[in-house]
Each structure stands twice: as structure tokens, then as C-alpha cells.
Amino acid sequence: QNTAQLPRLSLDDVLRRFALIFGDTKVFDTSEQVVIKKTAFQDLVGKDIAKAWMAHPARRTVMPDDVAHLQSSGNKGSQAAILQRYVYLYPTKDVWDTVDRCIIPLDALKAAIPADFDWWMKNPKRRQIKRENLVFDPTQQADPKTHINMFRGLPLKPARTSESADGIIALVDHLCNGDDDIIDWMLKWLALPLQRVGAKLDTALLVHSTIQGTGKSMLFADLHCQLYGEYGAVLGQHQLESQYTDWRSQKLYGVFEEIFSREQKYSHTGTLKHMITGKTQRIEKKFVSGWEEANHMNAVFLSNEIQPFPVEPSDRRMMVIWPERTLPEEIQNRAGYEIESGVGAPAWLRFLLDYPLGDFNEHTKPPMTEAKERLIRYGMPAWETFFLEWRDGNLEIPFCSCRSNDLYKAYTHYCRTRNEHYVSQTKFSTIMATKIRKKADAKYHKSGAITKATAFIIGEPPEGQSERAWLTEQFAKFQNGLNQMLEG
Questions:
Q1: Most-buried pick from 144, 420, 438, 474 (CB within 10 A)?
Q2: 158 and 346 Cβ atoms separated by less than 8 Å
């Protein structure tokens, strides 16, 4: 079949869009989902690009079974079809079902084909591969001679233009409060894994707001999951708490809604971090041997909580977005029609496939938004907020060298006036020592005599002044501020 005429494609476009059919000279167009003869392919992309594509190490290869779906419903029960359908995974007690695209235990297969099970087990033509050679490789680089790839391509065909996604684009603008920088970053984040199928981003989106009806689920769950089909899912607290993790298997995109209760916010942060940046993941499935699988899932977290989970001050994983208004009825109706009518998803896919990425890549870090700053401060312990307020000059005490005991007095007073929990002096002093230089025997003048104290040293004495004289002035300056704080 000849695909529709298109503008001249670049080599990157061709690498992303086409795959060579294993054992053949024909090419599969993953965008139009058609098979193209070699000569038609060369006419479409040009002989030079076709030759470069054929020799390129990133060229994808796809099995004929995955292109043509040769296993029809009418012959699934024949012995020839059984030999083709089930692949033994050595040295486990599991089988790969090439039709239903899942791993099943041998006992389940015996129940499915009771009359032919023993024949299949003893048949010398039975298909068999090593367990580690059953892979989930959306980049389609695995050698089809030795491996079985669980990925068989994204299901949705893009529209010719993005005209039918105008309401969806207005929805994006609404969710990002019209901030062009946030809109651009988010669109690139959504577009990259579609333009480079299998790309695993080091970052995730967190879209949360205490305002109901902002349209979060409409965009990220109702619409965007359609682009991934079986490789996308809407998930929740139940999946994260389960001892089985097969819900992660063969996923490119996951939307997590209200995943933690208040008691669990801090206990699952390690799980979230690994899910976002881990290169591989352990998959555990009931009655099936566990296995390691490449992690290609990019995650979006949605919540109506002011703090869905804590975000560290040094966090470089989360892009945090806070929609400020309820979705206007006009946008809701336009976007809702596009999504429900079926014209929106193909047009949205076209829009993202055409969106320019520039230098954006899998490792591009998210900008610091006001929403992220607020979320970070919300989850900070009292000692950290105290330090930041002190450092930024928002307290009566000056940010200068001081005695350890005086700083602790200021900290406990700060906590009591704000009804915050405070840590012991030993812990507080240890924590502050990670941020400010601590000196155990700092010398200074007190009542005309030289004395020593444990102190936190900020800065250096000016030229020509001894450290002892300088610290005496610094301690007195801090003490004056502390007195004002305690009296106030």
C-alpha cells in the first residue's frame, strides 16, 4: 500500500515514524498504520534518507505478527496456532501468550488447552526463549531473532491537522493560568515521549489545586490516555499499596489521582522517586515468577489537596502546576465535545507530534514555579522555615554570627509563637552545622574577660580586626535582636 503524500521528512522524522518488517523489505508506517513497499518508501522519503535510515543503528524493526495480527479468531484453537501463540519462558514455569500479550503460568495454559497441553509440551517445534529475552522495548531496538518485544506500537493514528484540538489547547492554557513558560514546558513534556516513543523522562507533572472542576482529569486522564491505549492507565492508591506491581508492566504513561492518605504522604516518597527516575523496575504478578522490566512510564499526579505529598527543597523531579480557576463553561463544552466525539484525540496527537522541542530532552529540569515554592514551604519542618526566615531577614534577629544557645532560644520562641513542634538543642545544633560553620571554642569578650562559647560563624572579620573583637560585636548585635524578639 502507498501512504498519503506528505511533506519531505527529515531522518529524525523517518526514524521516529517507520519500522522495517523483519524478514522482509517492506516498511511499516506507525503513524498511518500501513505497510509500504520498498520502492514506495524510497519515493516517499527520498533515496538518500531511505539509505541512511536502513543503515542507522536506531532504526526500528517490527515482527510481521505485530503488524498483520496474523492470529485470527477463527484458528486460535488449531494446533498450528497453539505452537505459534504460546512461547515457553526458560527456565521459569511461565508462558508468553502472543495473542493476549501477557505472561501466564503453565497451570493456566493447561486449563486453557487441556487436550493439547501435553502435545505442546513435548513438541520439538514449541517456541522457547530465555526469560530475560522477553522485553518491553518501545524504542524497538531489540533483536527480533532472539527477543520478543511486548510493545507493538501506539494505537492512535494522528489527524492531518490539529484544527479539531482548539478547545483542548484552550484547556491547557486555562490549567497553566496563561503562563507561556509553564505552557511551553508542559507541552514539551507531553510531546517528547510521543515524538520519541519510549523516552523515559527524569521528571513528572504534579497538577493540584483546592479548587474543584479545573479540568485536570479531562486533559490528562480522559484525553491523553487515549493516545497510549493499552500502554496508558489511570491509577490510584490501591495500586501503590498492592504487593503486586504488574500494573506497572508495559506502561508508557500513568495518571495517578489522589494516591496518598494524610498518614501515607511521607512513607511512599521513595517509591515515587524510583518510579520517576528508575531505569528498571521489579514486576511482581500473582502466581507468576517476578521479573525485571525496563521502566518507560512517565507519570502525572493529580490532586485536590494542598499537599498531595511532600516535595523537598532540592527536588528536581516535579513540575508543579496550580490551576487558579474553575474551568469556564465555554472551554469545558468545546474541549468536552472534541474529546467525546473522537475527533479531539487524533488532532491533539498531531499537535504534539508537530510541537517543536528545541533543546528540551529527557533530562531537562522543571522551572521553579510559585506553586512549587508554596508546596516546598508547606512541607518544611519548623527548623528549616526558621532558618530560611532568619537568612532572608524576615525576623527580628539579624543574620550574623551568634552563640549556639542564643540561636536555640530564638528558634524555640519562633516555634512557640507559631504553635510548631521544635527539636532538642542537640539535634537543632547538629542540623544548623550543616548550613553554617560551627565553632566549639569561639573566643569573645564578656564583662571585660575573655570567654569561650559554641558559636555559629557567618562571614569573616573585616581586615584589621581580630576575630575575638569581631565576634564580641556580632554576639552583642544578635543578643539585641533576640531581646526584641522575646519582648515582642
A1: 474
A2: yes
